[in-house]
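user: can you give me the structure for this one chain? tokens are fine.
assistant: on it. calling the predictor now.
[tool input]
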Amino acid sequence: MTTYTQQLEFQCARREVLRGGDWLSADELSALASPRDQISEANLSLWLRADQIFFIRSGGTDYFPRYALDAMHGYQPVPDLHFVIRILKTMKNGWEMAFWFASLNSYLGDQRPQDVLHHHMERVIEAARQEVLSISHG
């Protein structure tokens, strides 16, 4: 049973995640991409089905993580991110994944997964595995 204090803490954590500026609505995401790399609702649906991206919902709007997109390649999903999402989604919903990506991680040298996934995806995949193992055994 969730206490009132836990609910307030969760709401504060959600606000902090959104305030971090790492989240884009579908319209904001479309505006970032060039006309050649247009990102449509169909693209987002395909990416979601293929676990190439995840979303959080706030105030009736879906938000997608900016850090999960490769700006150098037309804001396409970061290669191999689907491995991380598939591991985490066995135990976490979108908001819980958002918290995980935004939290310091001891398996990543106390860095946040969202900060290192573009350069050390293999380490982020292993950190996700360790996260799920610790939840299932903890």
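assistant: here you go. The longest strand covers residues 61-65. The CA atoms of residues 72 and 96 lie 27 Å apart.
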